[in-house]
Amino acid sequence: MDNYVITIARGFGSGGKEIGLTLAKELGINCYEKRILELASEYSGLSQEMFERVDEKFSSEKIRKALAKMPVTGEVSSPAYKRFQSDIKLFNIQAHIIRELAQSESCIIVGKCADNILASYKNVISVYIEAPREFCRARIMEKYSCTADEANRLIYQTDQYRAEYYKYYSGGNEWTNVTNYDLTINIGRTGFDNAINLIKDYLKSKLGNVISQDIKV
Predict the structure, then answer these.
(1) pLDDT value at residue 41
(2) What predicted TM-score, i.e. pTM, was given to this entire model?
(3) Where are the chain's structural domains?
(4) DSSP one-letter code for 13
(5) C-alpha torsion sign, points 60, 27, 183, 19
(6) Angle at 65 (CA atoms; ends 62, 67), nearest 5 degrees
(7) Residue 63 neighbours by CB under 8 Å, 6+ apart
(8) Strand partners for 108
(9) How does DSSP classify residue 125?
(10) How far is the CA of 200 from the CAs of 132, 180, 196, in angstroms?
(11) CATH for 5-208?
């Protein structure tokens, strides 16, 4: 293959999606996150809403609803993700799209268990982005205009959902297992710019033979 793929797994509020978008712009390639759902819908003829329902993250609308229902005190109730088995066919369609992308173009794929789906591909580097709770909490509070307690609960719920999603569809693997990834980056320590440079440096080191010479990494 003469193309490459960067997969990005990320803790909620860490800024992993923003890193993916910025990195894609600098490399001159596409960044896929929600677009995966659109492509899966186009490929299968099924509605995009069906794929959004089983996505591995909370949408902005889900977050707004979660904030409205969130208790002021007490334990956080578990999100409704107990029956993934009914969604296997939809996941497999998404996995097919991800494999097709990995074989046809250089791109970045955020979430969607992409690192696990593409684990055997030699043209892929996988990255896990995380940050301390206070870093994530501050970003969530600013983005959703919520309190610190609400932000903490959103981080807990969303990360738990992602972990369960990953564990189910990866056959029992742990989402936060650092051995799943080529790079694990603590944004709270590196900052965004250094994190992007680290990924680009590793990309050049591992896959320099397939990177276009006119791309500055």
Answers:
(1) 75
(2) 0.82
(3) 5-208
(4) T
(5) negative
(6) 110
(7) 144, 154
(8) 6, 31
(9) E
(10) 23, 19, 6
(11) 3.40.50.300
pLDDT in tens, 106-130: 999 999 999 999 999 999 999 999 9
Strands (E) across 15-166 are located at 30-32, 107-110, 124-130
Cβ within 8 Å of residue 66, ≥6 positions away:
58, 153, 154, 157
- Give pLDDT, residue 89: 82
How large is the average pLDDT for residues 68-91?
50
Higher-pLDDT residue of 168, 66: 168
Using CA of residue 127, residue 163, residue 106, residue 118, what is the dihedral sign?
Answer: positive
29 phi/psi in degrees, rounded to 5: -130, 170
Residue ranges in 45-87 assigned as alpha helix (H): 48-53, 60-69
The amino acid occupying position 155 is I
- Residue from 42, 53, 17, 44 nearest 165 by CA: 53
Is the per-residue pLDDT at 57 higher than 90? no
